[in-house]
Amino acid sequence: MAGSLVLVDKFTVSSAVSSVTIGGGSSGSSSYNFTIDSTYNVYKLIIYGLRADTDSSSAQIRVTKSGTAQSDSEYDEAAKQFKAYNTFTNNDDVNQTSWGFNATGTNANSSFNLIAYLFNFADASEYSFATFEEATSDTTLDFRGKQGGGVHTVASASDGINVSVSSGNIASGELVLYGLRK
């Protein structure tokens, strides 16, 4: 697999922003102006060190179409929640306005980290979907993880990912998008 990952977009949050778009062409947050297309069948998104400027603020991810985040009620997901301080739980949500993740906050040791694989994004006749692995240290520094997948139940091409938090702004973090060589 060496050499299989091709960097296509990257953005570092250095001051508070309401959201970050990776991909999405000229509407994206970085200077790459990259649009997810059929160049690669699968894309890999890595988010690390993401913190909010408001405690107990959950990360939210949406697909973009023509560079615009889709906030329709077409997001479904299922996952297993792993908690260092409690028992495992199952999560399943349908008809949500984003894929939701665990809370982060202002504590310097609190952060949201994610690896996601994006499928069917360039296919106009299929749903866009993702698998994800998350590790978060929340505002009380409780560690939790989440593994699962989500689907945007609209059969149309998606060209990027938009990341925001449920309240306040994203204070810091790094977002990187790779294409997986065919």
Describe the structure.
It is a single chain. The chain has 182 residues and is an all-beta fold. It has a single domain, classed as Jelly Rolls (Sandwich), CATH 2.60.120. It has no helices and 13 strands. The chain has strands at 5-13, 19-23, 42-52, 57-65, 68-69, 75-83, 89-96, 99-104, 111-119, 128-137, 143-152, 160-165, 170-180. The strands form two sheets. Strands 1-13-3-9-10-11-6-7 form an eight-stranded antiparallel sheet, with no helix packed on it. The protein is globular, with a radius of gyration of 15 Å.
Number of strands: 13
Number of helices: 0
Q: What Rg, in angstroms, do the CA atoms define? A: 15 Å
Shape: globular
Topology:
Layout: E1 5-13, E2 19-23, E3 42-52, E4 57-65, E5 68-69, E6 75-83, E7 89-96, E8 99-104, E9 111-119, E10 128-137, E11 143-152, E12 160-165, E13 170-180
Antiparallel strand pairs: 1-13, 2-12, 3-9, 3-13, 4-5, 4-8, 4-12, 6-7, 6-11, 9-10, 10-11
